[in-house]
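Dear Dr. H.,

I hope your travels went smoothly. While you were away I took the liberty of generating a structure for the chain from your last submission, since the lab meeting agenda had it listed for discussion. I wanted you to have the full record in hand beforehand rather than looking at slides cold. The sequence, exactly as received, is reproduced here:
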Amino acid sequence: MDDDLVTRLKAYEGHRAAVAGTGKDPVNLPMIRHWCEALGDTNPAYSGPDAVAPPTMLQAWTMGGLTGHTGRSPAYDELLALLDESGCTSVVATDCEQEYLRPLRPGDEITFDTVIESVSGRKTTKLGTGHFVTTRTDVRVGGALVGTHRFRILKYAPARQRKKPPRPRPVVNRDNAGFWEGVEQRRLLIQRCTACATLRFPWLPGCAHCGGPDWDTVEANGGGTVYSYVVMHHPPFPAFTESDHGADAAGPYAVVLVELAEGVRMISNVVGTPYDKVRIGMPVRLEFRVYDDDLVLPVFRAAEEDA
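The corresponding predicted structure, in token form, is as follows:
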């Protein structure tokens, strides 16, 4: 069976994954600037009237974004589907190699072709057993080859976890220990400066308003609204999968900034509501969720769900 699968996989070597692809945008200074700012690269060669693009941006000019490219060949999708059918349903990028023949300059119009260069035999890694797939993209300007990008992934069947890892623990220190003690008692405590009565969250060693070091606490009444949120997308992590304690399944999930009725804001999760139904201004109510024998966290539930 394995030999037959490898034969079928290797039949895809040399097939085109993309033909006559065109860069979504010409090489341009704004994108070069964003790239350099993100990486902290201040090389003067990447700015000014004679600027060139950083060589490592080679792949960036070929990316298709959310809508993809025209000219995409079905061969690569067929190969991945065959690997899925064999049980290799997970994927991880392993490495890439680039070759540069000449610098890219603002105004250059990119075209490219991608070929399935190689598919490995069955390999066993710490992640699981699967196959390495390497694609080669030849990048051209005006028909002339300017660079080559090789990209390698591992499509694998995840190794069985002998024991589910514990959910990550919050960092407890002398400045926030009182907050976590309150959580253990199912109370959400907010610091209050005893000098100016300013409430603060998260907990801090001194008042940011007046600088006073002394404080006491008030207990939140549990009401609030979603002030802002982001949706997190990432591969499943075993510690965050669904459990007997009612923990939410791995993402996508919404991370929310809740404005409490008392006026301070805190980061948490909204449970019981799909991530794409969370909205700014949505009323929420506090609840305490038990994730395992030693971990209780404050989370929020849509208030209308309690009605």
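Two observations you may find useful: The chain has five helices and 14 strands. The longest strand covers residues 144-158.

With kind regards,
E. W.
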